[in-house]
Amino acid sequence: MLTRRGVLAAAAGSLLLAGCGPQGQRPDDGTSSSAPGDQNLVVGVSLELSGRGAALGVVQRRALEITAEALNRSGIPVGNLLRSVRLEFRDNGSDPEVAGRHATELTRAGAHALVGGVLGDTATAIAVAAQRVKTPFLALGFSDRIVLPLSERTYSFKLTPDATDMARRMVDLLETQRVGRVALLAEDGPHGDSGVRALREAFASSTVDLGRTVRLPAGGRSFRAAAERVAAGNPDAVIVWGTAPDSGTAARELRRAGHRGALFFDAGAVVDDTLSGANAKAVEGAYAVHPACLGGSALMATSGALVARRDFDYRYTRKHGTSVGFAPYAADALQLVAAAARKATSLDRGRLRAFLQTQTSEGIAGGYAFTADRHGGMEADSLGVYQVSQGSWTRYA
């Protein structure tokens, strides 16, 4: 039977292998010529290169630079011209107001598409501004509000998994492990809001009891009081729903507060910072739901996807010394923009948006299936379960 996953597999080559040819070669069929410098594909990027989101933002910048370099080896055929990608970076300092302002400034400066926002609130702010200036935006943050309601987010597309899919996978895991009672510690803001809502829906039809729900204070303030409230209920397990560095800090405070049971993270925790020295003991043995591209193992259905993942890992590791599980979102975002430009035969922002919402492709992080009615494109069966073992993320299921 032809499955949705099979359709993604069939489409994989067009997204993943672009820009992966031998260095220096450019397609030559006698019909294309290089575009002048002012006609390149300009992608405006607003990232958390400082502030709370820097642990995620810095790896995204690296991934974008690596992917742009790969694409520019052969060029992107758009109409009868070969174009290069030009990235324009801005540091939003993890400030939503600054991130929203960047969307407008980058569009005025000539950006054809926007990428960024690794935190839920910064990505949501960019989405609001992108709608106003009618510029396609590919978000790297976690929150359903980035692309919902769709009538107000027609120019925004989310690369990360939907909260509903992560919650269902997490509850399935808890049922398999026969956990009795769970508490939830969720970060403040739109990502935490999405997690609370999705988990309550998932637990409603589960044999596992969702007990106390506590929200972390905003702005990275002390998590001690919140952790103590959770631990006081003596749950069998605690779900920490948040992005790094909050995830590791929350785990550390939970252990200090006396919680000795299991810990479960959503995909926002999967970055080196969560496993760092200060957090290492607290997170050992913890579980995370994350796209199944982490640590070289994958649910990828095609050889093209595996080749692209290995190529990305090789180039990232060679340049930066280690590969990071969160990084492929940005690589996929840039490949999706390039693919939309090829299909649109134009850099017109409206046409790019129209072709982005028809993308069905297998990326490095997982499968995407954007439609006019669905702009949160990560497929549910792209998700896997990982466990921290001896300081590393290890595939569990």
Ends: how far apart? Answer: 24 Å
Count of strand segments:
17
Helix content: 25-40%
Based on CA inertia axes, which overall geometry fits? Answer: globular
Overall average residue pLDDT: 89
Protein structure class: alpha/beta
Give the CATH topology of the largest domain: Rossmann fold
Elements, N to C (H/E):
HEEHEEEHEHEEHEHEHEHEHEHHHEEEE
Q: What low-confidence regions span 5 or more consecutive residues with pLDDT below 50? A: 17-32, 296-301
Beta-strand level of the residues, as a percent range?
15-25%
CATH superfamily of the largest domain: Response regulator
Q: Radius of gyration from the CA trace?
A: 21 Å
Instruction: Report strand order across the widest sheet.
Output: 10-9-11-12-13-16-17
Q: From the coordinates shown, what is the CATH architecture of the largest domain?
A: 3-Layer(aba) Sandwich
How many domain regions?
2
Task: Tell me the major beta sheet.
Answer: 7 strands, mixed
Number of helices: 12
Characterize the structure shown.
This protein is an alpha/beta fold. It folds into two domains: 4-161 and 299-383, Response regulator (Rossmann fold), CATH 3.40.50.2300; 163-294 and 385-395, Response regulator (Rossmann fold, 3-Layer(aba) Sandwich), CATH 3.40.50.2300. The protein has twelve helices and 17 strands. The chain has helices spanning 4-16, 54-74, 96-108, 120-133, 163-176, 190-204, 224-232, 246-256, 280-283, 303-320, 328-344, 349-356, and strands spanning 33-34, 41-47, 76-78, 81-83, 85-91, 113-116, 137-139, 156-158, 181-186, 209-215, 237-241, 262-265, 287-291, 360-362, 367-369, 383-389, 392-395. The strands form four sheets. The protein has a seven-stranded mixed β-sheet, with helices on both faces. Helix 9 links the parallel strand 12 and strand 13. Residues 43-388 form the Leucine-binding protein domain. Pfam families: Peripla_BP_6. InterPro entries: BCAA_transport (IPR051010), Leu-bd (IPR028081), Peripla_BP_I (IPR028082). Belongs to the leucine-binding protein family.
